[in-house]
Amino acid sequence: MMKTLVEAEMKRVQKFAVDVTLDPETAHHNLILSDDGKQVKPAQSFSSEKLYYEIQVKQKSEWSLGVTRESVNRKGKITLSPQKGYWTIGLRNGNEYKALAGPPVVLSLKSVPQKVGVFVDYEEGLVSFYDVEAAALIYSFTGCSFKEKLLPFFFPGDYLDGINSSPLIISPDGVN
C-alpha cells in the first residue's frame, strides 16, 4: 500500500522534469565535465514553481546532491546545511546516508539507491529526494524559505586511489 502511494507521488513529481546541464566554468578545480555537460556544476538556476531531475549515483561510495541558493559562496570550504543555503542529502563511507539538515539526520534506507530523484516545490518550500528504482521517498526538507533562485548542487565525492571514480550522471531528459 505505502509503495503504491510513493509510486503515485513519484509519477506526479516526475511531470515537472527539467533538463539540467553543467557549467564547464565550475567552481571546484577537481571536477571533470563531460562534453555533453551531463557529468558537475549547474549552468542554470531555477525559480519555477516546481521542478524535478534525476541523478545516477550507482557505484559511488561518497556523494552529496540537492539544491542551493544562487548567492552562496561556492569556493573554499562550505557547510552543507539549510541555514547556509544548501538542502542536500549525501552518502559517506559507502553506507552512511544523511540528510545534511544541520544537525545531520541519519537515514535508514531499505535499498541502495542507484538513481536519486530531486523534487523542488518552490512555492511550498519543499525539497524531496527519492530512490527512483525503489519508488521510495528518501527524505524531505519542509518549511523551506526560498527568497532567490536555486541551483542544483552536486558533489561527486573524493577520488581516492581508484575508489569512488564513477561520475554522477544527470538523466538526459530529467527522467529516464
UniProtKB/TrEMBL annotation:
Pfam families: PRY (PF13765), SPRY (PF00622). Residues 1-175 form the B30.2/SPRY domain. It comes from the Eukaryota. InterPro entries: B30.2/SPRY, B30.2/SPRY_sf, Butyrophylin_SPRY, ConA-like_dom_sf, PRY, SPRY_dom, TRIM/RBCC. This is E3 ubiquitin-protein ligase TRIM39. It comes from Liparis tanakae.
